[in-house]
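Input record, target 12 of the design panel.
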């Protein structure tokens, strides 16, 4: 087996060699039974039985080797060992056939001799398809099985025997050439399969990368880069979807909006980087509350935040808004530019069951009105609709 072959191709070839071993057992048993029965009346029965026992033992050994092989994974480090083990057992089988055939053709019976020659030729023909993936393995069986018989037939000197011997040797050469061609074709076919499999894997990886890139691009286009909350575009899409769903199911839809109190003075006093950190911490509170309430939180721009909560009436929306406002106060972020001395936010809200006479913008405007009232009533409070 060429060293230049890719490791996975070598492993596949060895796997196929072991997989086809069962066919060799069957053909050998059939051929051995026919030849043994044919020579039983004229040959030494002890020799026939000894050969049958020896060859049966080899079949058992090869079967056990095959079972062990199925339990392991072929790797570059053990491939040569498994190939050698297979080739060694095949060589012993070929040698047993060659020795048995040489013994049998000593009996002067042209018909029986022809049967032995045909049997050996058939076994070698089968070996071409079974073992050609490795030329050394093919040689390990065909040469000891056929060459001694061919030479023995030539050595007899009888015209019929010489003709059979010459045909055997010619057949051996033809089978080896066929084996080389068959191996080349098989290796190329397997190579194409691996290339196609790698191409499919590559395409699947590329598809996964494109899918992930599309997901990331979608997330970037719908996420506020500073806080990680939904941006205005994503919030508007969520609002339309929730509006339609609540209209169908006759559920109330709550719109909670909030402004960070005195945020411009905060930026002037502490700087924009610290202001960004405040916005991120506020966003974490909104995200937790949205998850708890089954809603969507967004940063609509600047210091303005919003929350959308389906199946939520005004009373529940007020509870959610107050819980969020209290959590923001609990962060205890100092703010010297605020009369309160810490970062806070003002909240407004609105809730309605969507219908044909009401628009999405009307719900948002109602929430904005209550937010305006909260800011003008002293800030750091939640105002619900009258």
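The sequence produced for target 12 reads:
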């Amino acid at each position: 087996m060429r060293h230049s072959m890719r490791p996975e191709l070598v492993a596949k070839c060895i796997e196929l060699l072991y997989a086809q071993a069962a066919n060799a057992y069957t053909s050998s048993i059939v051929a051995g039974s026919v030849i043994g029965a044919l020579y039983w009346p004229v040959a030494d029965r002890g020799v026939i039985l000894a050969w049958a026992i020896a060859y049966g033992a080899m079949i058992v050994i090869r079967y056990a080797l095959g079972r062990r092989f199925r339990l392991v994974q072929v790797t570059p480090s053990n491939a040569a060992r498994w190939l050698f083990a297979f080739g060694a057992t095949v060589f012993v089988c070929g040698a047993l056939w060659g020795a048995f055939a040489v013994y049998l053709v000593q009996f002067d019976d042209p018909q029986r001799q022809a049967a032995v020659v045909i049997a050996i030729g058939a076994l070698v023909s089968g070996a071409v398809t079974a073992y050609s993936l490795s030329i050394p393995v093919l040689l390990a069986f065909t040469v000891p099985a056929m060459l001694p018989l061919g030479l023995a037939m030539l050595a007899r000197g009888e015209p019929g025997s010489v003709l059979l011997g010459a045909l055997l040797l010619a057949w051996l050469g033809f089978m080896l050439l066929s084996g080389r061609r068959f191996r080349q074709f098989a290796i190329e076919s397997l190579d194409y399969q691996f290339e196609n499999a790698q191409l499919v894997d590559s395409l699947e990886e590329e598809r996964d990368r494109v899918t992930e890139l599309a997901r990331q691009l979608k997330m970037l286009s719908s996420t506020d880069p500073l806080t990680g909350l939904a941006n205005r575009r994503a919030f508007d899409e969520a609002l339309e979807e929730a509006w339609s769903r609540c209209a169908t199911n006759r559920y109330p839809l709550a719109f909670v909006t909030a402004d960070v109190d005195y945020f411009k003075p905060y930026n002037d006093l502490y700087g924009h980087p610290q202001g960004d950190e405040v916005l991120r911490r506020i966003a974490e509170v909104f995200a937790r509350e949205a998850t708890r309430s089954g809603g969507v939180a967004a940063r609509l721009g600047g210091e303005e935040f919003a929350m959308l909560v389906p199946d939520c009436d005004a009373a529940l929306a007020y509870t959610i808004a107050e819980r969020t406002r209290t959590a923001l106060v609990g962060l205890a972020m100092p703010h010297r530019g605020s009369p309160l001395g810490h970062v806070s936010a003002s909240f407004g809200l609105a809730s309605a069951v969507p219908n044909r006479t009401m628009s999405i913008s009307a719900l948002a405007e109602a929430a904005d009105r209550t937010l305006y009232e909260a800011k003008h009533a002293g800030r750091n409070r939640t105002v619900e609709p009258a």
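The radius of gyration is 43 Å.
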